[in-house]
Amino acid sequence: MSDVSPASPAASPDPAALERELAVLFVEALNLEQAPEDLDVGAPLFGDGLGLDSIDILEVALEISQRYGFQLRSDDEQNHQIFRSLRSLAAHVAQHRTR
């Protein structure tokens, strides 16, 4: 018998698929007037990119914790990097998800 188990839900999916999933989450959670496929995954989430504010990020963090099974903490020193773009957020989710 092999000790190899099937991939768990926490296994890293295709990075582009996770980026698309998060784009849909952003559009739905924040009621954005853009289609998820129109979001630039490399654009900044704050400022000139998507123009989100801290309340928007709190809403997204709640949705991510419910969907992916881990907590995004407001006191994490890496938040600036984590929330730089959808792409950086997707990389963080891929590393920490439990579902």
Automatic annotation (TrEMBL):
Residues 16-97 form the Carrier domain. Pfam families: PP-binding (PF00550). InterPro entries: ACP-like_sf, PP-bd_ACP. This is Acyl carrier protein ACP1. It comes from Piscinibacter sakaiensis (Ideonella sakaiensis). The lineage of its organism: Bacteria, Pseudomonadati, Pseudomonadota, Betaproteobacteria, Burkholderiales.
